[in-house]
Amino acid sequence: MSANLSFCALSNTLNFPYNPVFNRKPILHFLFPKAKIIASSRLDHRDGIEPKKQETNHSNSAIKAPTAPWMKGPLLVEPNQVLHFSKRRRRRKDSTFIENETPDKALTSKVSGGRGKKAMNKIFHRIEKLQEIVDLEEESWETEEKEKFKFTPGALWGDKDSDLEEIGEGLKFGKGIRRMPWQKEEEGIVIKRMNTEKAMTAAEAILDREFLERLRDKSARMRKWVKVNKAGVTQDVVNQVRLIWRTDELAMLKFDVPLCRNMARAREIVEMKTGGLVVWSKEDALVVYRGHNYQLGFNASPKKRRNLVDDGPNSSLSGGGEEESVSIDGSLYEREADRLLDGLGPRFVDWWYPKPLPVDADLLPEVVPGFRPPLRRCPPDVRSQLTDHELTYLRKLARPLPTHFVLGRNRKLQGLAEAVLKLWEKCHIAKIALKWGVPNTDNEQMASELKRLTGGIILLRNKFLIILYRGKDFLPSQVATLVAEREALLMRHQFHEESARLETTEIFSATYETSVNSDILGTLSEFQLFTDYAKQEVRNDEVKIQMETQKARLEKELRNQEWKLFMLKKKIETSVKVLEKLDSAWEPSEQDEDKEIITEEEKECLRSIGLKMDGSLVLGRRGVYGGVIEGLHQHWKHREVAKVITMQKTFSQVLQTAQFLEVESGGILVSIDKLKEGHAIILYRGKNYKRPKLAPQNLLTKREALFKSLEMQRLGSLKFYANQKEQAILDLKRKLKECT
Fold first, then answer.
1. Beta bridge partners of 286
2. CATH H-level, domain 600-699: superfamily
3. Model confidence over 622-676: pLDDT tens digits?
4. How far apart are CA 39 and CA 62, in angstroms?
């Protein structure tokens, strides 16, 4: 390439030879502005290459352009090899990304959804499609054995050191491999979760398969059932099932909460109480088969009835083997819980949660002779109350524990309290569930009764559970017995010591006075007397301090109330002065002596006309001022009667306002009537009415009237609070007299 470049001395043009090998891409990757690239044909003769013939077509002819200052000679370049920076070049879309695009951009372009599952599926399909295209274009990539495409995540970014090692069915990535965005780093060994096999039911083990299928088909078509309420499978439900078995071999049961949440336990209870076999179950329904040898009116126990079912022609298991298997079945959790509850009382068979079965508290005795709340002693430097942190910890600790008791009554819980005390010797927490469907149960009363009998601490109480903690001061029965014995022994020793001291003082008493004065000297009685006197003195001092504190507090409160009353009186004086100034700003008019007189008939007629009028003049909080009188004359301009509505409460104020309007306007007061919205004042203008030319000058303006109304309201409030303060001062003075 270096041999083919030449610089011409007479020109500033760099000469490039024409090479058909590099015809695919432009030879120059940059150009100076205002420069033209020209391919020289003169050097082609030197290298033995024939120059390209000039074509007649102008579009295919070589282009000569200005050269750079250091170039010598012209450059001739074909038109398709010139880069035009003025026009934006559009990237040509290619089906393959080998030359133009990077692999990761080709995969993720035009894929919406970010890193979601849908976007990842689209990317994977594109990878498969790209692999097919590459396999078709380059035969070197094809292998003899056509295997399913396995995409290497490291290949997207060009990791040459990435490797895949097949281990079993999985893939193990090497050190240079990058994970895909949806892959997570897995540490340790991943163990596949094994699906547990469905346990075989008693019906499947005993009955033939064809016979069982027939029963299940018949069960699916049943539309009548026995409703099992919240109380569970009671004796009434069992009697209804036996009544159905007299006419049909199958009986359907539908369960309400809580048994509908655990149908496996419901199956066990039904089979145990009825003696039948559950052959079909769906959601909250079970169908019970009565058995081959069921006898009408047979009142044997469920165990004997199960033996009759097992002794049928299709029997494969015996009742004795089943009872033996029950003793060894169950997890370690169930066995430990059963061992904890053994000896506390009979179990609750209708338990709606999985085993272990809790103790039925309703079957425990209501009253236990000689029962007393346990003795409690708190360790030194330990508070018996629980902190918030301890309470939270104990509640979390009680969550996985099994339920110990099931309760359904509110009172007479001494038997349950005794069982709880026995349980607390092995477990710190007692968990008591409340029975469903039992009327008139009150969990608050239950919890308070148990707390009174046992002295424990309630961790949780709601309509489902009561959780009791034995407390930090709880003593087991043996320890409590030892403590009580030691206390009794200590009291006996104190009694003997007191008796010995009394005998000694009687022997060595010299005189009667001495014996009288010294009969209790150095004894426990003397110490007790001194202690009582000291306690009484302390009590007297405390009472005296409380009285002095109360007296000081009352005196301080009295001073505060007197200061507030003084400030209120100052404000009242200021408000009175402002009102006097406003009252002096207006002068009421004098009433005309020559007043027009109208008859009663005219008054009644004018009153009916005024009440029927729609237009009216409403008086607000400002009262009567100059603008009201002008509005009244405006009404009289078009009609003889004017209706004024006022919102004042008392009739005396309304009457005073009506008289004031009559005097200031010069009209005649017709009537005052009570309406729904207030009082209506009817005014007649008179027969000789003349409208005044000027507005009244002796009344207040609108602003002054509003200010007067606010000041009157303020004065009333101040007087009210001043009266309250005076009453409070009198009460404080009375209390001070009582304290002294």
1. 253, 281
2. YhbY-like (3.30.110.60)
3. 888 888 888 898 889 888 999 999 988 888 889 989 988 888 888 889 999 998 8
4. 8
